[in-house]
From TrEMBL:
This is (2Fe-2S) ferredoxin domain-containing protein. It comes from the Bacteria. InterPro entries: Thioredoxin-like_sf (IPR036249).
Amino acid sequence: MKKLLKRILALLRQIFQQFSSTEQPSSPPSYHPPAIPIPPIPTFVPQWHNGLVLVCSQCTVEQFDGSSHRINKSTTASSELQNWLKSRLKFDGLWGKYRVVSTSCLGVCPQGGVVVVLRHDAVGQQCFIVRPQGEREILYSYIKQMHKY
């Protein structure tokens, strides 16, 4: 019986040695799901690659003058700021290099201000809360400063 046990142990050692010498990784095998091909989507380089100006369309739903009377019932402070930026960019010959886009709520919701995000590849992104009438020139100076890069 002892001889039989010794023989079985020797065979088991031999099997384990062969198995361990052929299997290199000591870690358990990892699961890799089969690669699912992703269909291509057309891409393009936009003409406004210099910069993108996002203006929240939900900020300051109505534009008021100093006495809390509506200036224009058909426009909002956001759309007024967006239109002013477009006009200014066109006047300075920068329209096309920059794009002004209206977005839905950006989640900041300031009182009396409009959230604006400036995006430029060289500079990154900057987020502002702008009082539409009082600070739009300052905002535009940031855009022009980005243009230098």
